[in-house]
What does this fold into?
Amino acid sequence: MLKNILLTIVLFSVAFGAAAQGETPPIYAYLTGGAGAGTIMNYQIEAHLLFLKHHGLTVGYQGFMRDAPATPSDYSVSTFLNFNLNYSDKPQEYLNGWTFSYSYFFYPKGKAANLLRYPLSLGLLTGTYSEPGNFNRTSGWGNNYAYDDLAEHATVLQLKAGLEFVPTRAFGLGTGIYATIGKLSGLGIYGNMLLGYVGDHRRAKNRKHS
It folds into this structure.
């Protein structure tokens, strides 16, 4: 036990000593928020840690949705009583939950490396999956079918390939493609905003001229 504690102290001392001498890249911490569209719609709020230049860890909350394939072909909704705020009038499949992912960052050559980076991410989303079921035809005002929302726990695999543009230390923009594999599978294109400590061009310039 004591040996493990001493070893941990030594490793931290070496790490902080190297950082103080400028031998290791800085650690960037920032938030992103955005949305995506494709075969499944998406919203995302995430916190990121980028360290050793190429490695990133992310935790956040995301949601995916699409028109439910099980919806009867003759389903319709009353336009008079339609107060639905979704992007579609049809019943939706939903997957909402926490995401955990690892990213590896690639950089272009030359001066563009201070402005652009390309994260390739692999992770998991675990949360609640909901789909409409038990459709029953109704009569009168409103929808011509009544249905139940059937919910269960689900975990899906997530893939992302992106581009991040970081013109300042505190702000950036991102875009890319995403895919989910599992209970709710699909593809899409996303856009987001980066806020926090996203990059440090002054440090890059000083390192270049030193």
In short: The CA atoms of residues 59 and 83 lie 34 Å apart.
